[in-house]
Every structure is written in structure tokens, then in C-alpha cells.
Amino acid sequence: MSNKAISGDASGRGAVAGYRVSIPARQRPYTEEEIAEVVRVMRDVPGQTQGAMQEQFQADFKAFTGANHAFAVGNATQALSLAATLCGVKPGDEVIIPAYTFCASAIPFGKEGAKIVWSDIDPETWVVSVRDIERKITKKTKAIVCVHLLGMPCDMPAIVALAKKHNIKVVEDCAQALDSRINGQHVGTFGDFGCFSFHGAKTMTTLGEGGMLTVKSDEDAKLVPGIRHNGVCGFTYPRERYWVPAMSNVDLDIEGFWPNNFCIGEAQCALGSMELKNLTKFSNIIIAQNDKLRALLKDVPEITFNKIPEGFRHVRHQYIQHFDGSAFGKDRNDLLDLLTTKYGIRSIVQYYPLYRYPLFQKLGMGDHDCPVLEKFWDNSFSVPMWCGMEDEVLVTIADSIKSAIADLKAAK
What we know:
By secondary structure, this protein is of the alpha/beta class. About 35% of the residues lie in helices and about 15% in strands.
């Protein structure tokens, strides 16, 4: 059993001594062009927030994804918070959210007072099940949160059709799925709102933090600037002196909802615009690497990967897989004990089902009905990945998995 201490990021990222292959803290280094752009903004742009760089980034993001409207924010959790507000979520409402995701997918809706109804995963794609969503809709359901977890798109055409039938808002959590698509259409453009992340662990990161909210409705889009920036707005009437009564007004955009400060800096926005130019190239590298790993493990019956439906572009956020050692009485923990200690592959386990976490249990949200996730999760794990992995590293990981499984069989 591995007894190496966890250091740094609790997610398992970052180099750790004693491992042959670890998970880096960042998926790829910045290019010199990207670094130069940040330095240029630091030197030459007078205002460092809410200026021309933000406008450009939002325009570039709209052009890249095909979204109707895009608003840059400090992180994806802020985008989700704005989406929860725009959905009009209030105490007593129900919001259907996948139990298999990062906690930020649920927290903003719980903070608005919603009852969270946990949805199960599809047994093949490992993202939210449309069938399970349908059986959990009630008259109190206000919104459905679809998480394109690990870069795998949910079945958005079916979910949007279901939501329209019941007059329910749809929020897409695309934090791990930038550049993922269904038949060419980008995730984040199917539902009412899309929420993207530019955190340090993502393919594209705006100096460690950053996010984007995409909005379908013109009417909803008009509300975002105020609730994103403390309710600050211009005065709606002519003034004899521009400073009377003050330079700007502060007003309530949505009755009963306080505004926030979810702004992002100009240097981050400029970097984001620069990164979008090469994003698809880096996405393709990440996909190709995972395809190679899948090919290296295709003849190992104990290891399975998620199924990618026809027409789905799955930009892999983690190289997650499922282990079945039931034939010889072993489980995921037995495999990882060997991978981490004997073979030096720093594998990790992410996204404990949210209803198992103390946070949600203490807030009365521990009830669940997710049989597929219960069967799947305890034997899933991720191996190290980053953009630009050499083939030799992928072979090392695959060979180590094969050897560890052979060891477990021999010890039966």
C-alpha cells in the first residue's frame, strides 16, 4: 500500500518525489507568444480590468464556440452562480444535478436554497443519464445541470428536448469540455447557459483562474453586466453635470437577487484570446494521446474506457478508466497500491459521488438513487496526463497497468 504523503494540490496534481510518472500541475506550458501578450498588457494597457481586452476575449469566444452571448468571469463557479441566478432558482425549487462531478457544479444552486436532486450516470458514456433525469423531474424542477464531465458531451439534443417539454432551464457545465462538440456544435450552446473554466488544470488557462458564461437569450444577456459587477450601471436619464449625483449608478437587475463582483483582469482576457488561436490543435493532441493509450490497453479485458457516441468530439480532461478485478477477487485499490508503489505511476481517484461528501450530507443532501454510479465509481481511476506526452510515457503507463494486473492475478 502506498504511504507517500500528499503534498501540494489536494487533487493530486503536481510533481511528487518517488514516482516515475506524476500528474503535472498544468496541462501545458505557455508559449512565448502568450507570455509576450501578457507582458504587453501589463506594460501598455492603462486600465487592467473591464476594458478592451475583455470585450475582445468575449467576442473571440463567441466566434470560437458559436454562442449567442459570452461574458468573461473570474472562474467557472462564478459562471455557474450567474446561471443559477438567471434561472431564478429560489428556496423550495428542485435542481437536477449529476452526482458524479466536481462540487462546484452543485454548490451555487444549493446556495440559492434549491433542493439538489442527484442524477445517475449513463453506464457507457459515464456522464449524466437522460433516462434518469426524466424519471426525477417533478413539478418543482427549476433547472437541469448537465456536466460534460472529463470532456465527454452529455446527450444535449435529448436533454434540451426533455427540458422544453417541461419548461425547465438547462445549464451546461463545460468546465472540462471546452472544444468538445456534438455533430460540430460546441457544448455550451445547446442549453440556456454554458459555464466554462480556464483553471490551471485545463487545456487553456488564463493565469490559473478564469471562466466564461455563455447565454442563449438576448433578454438574459442584458442582465449579466450588472449582476456580474455589483449592480454598477449608467444613469438612464440626461444629466446636466456628468458627476451628479455620481459617476455611476447602482441598481437591482433581478428582483430579490443581490449582484456580485465576478470580474476578470485584462491580462487574463488578452491571454485567453491568444490561447483560443491554438486551442483546437492542443485538444487534438490530447485526444490522440488518449486514443494511443486506449489502443495499448485494448486487449486488457479488466480495463475499460467510456464509449464515445457517433458524432461526439470528446476532448479528454483526464485519462479515466474502469478496472474489473472481480474474477480474481481484486479491486481498484489493490491495483493502485501496485501502480503507485511498485511501478511508480501516480494514479488518482477524482470526484467522489457528491452525496458521499460531508459538505452535502451536513446540508441534508445525502439522499440519492444512483445505482449505476454506485456500481461504477469504486473501481474507476485516472492515470497521469498532460498535453504533449511522449509515446514512451504512454507505453510506460500501459505496461505498468498490465504488469500490475498480472501481479494481482498471480497473487490470487
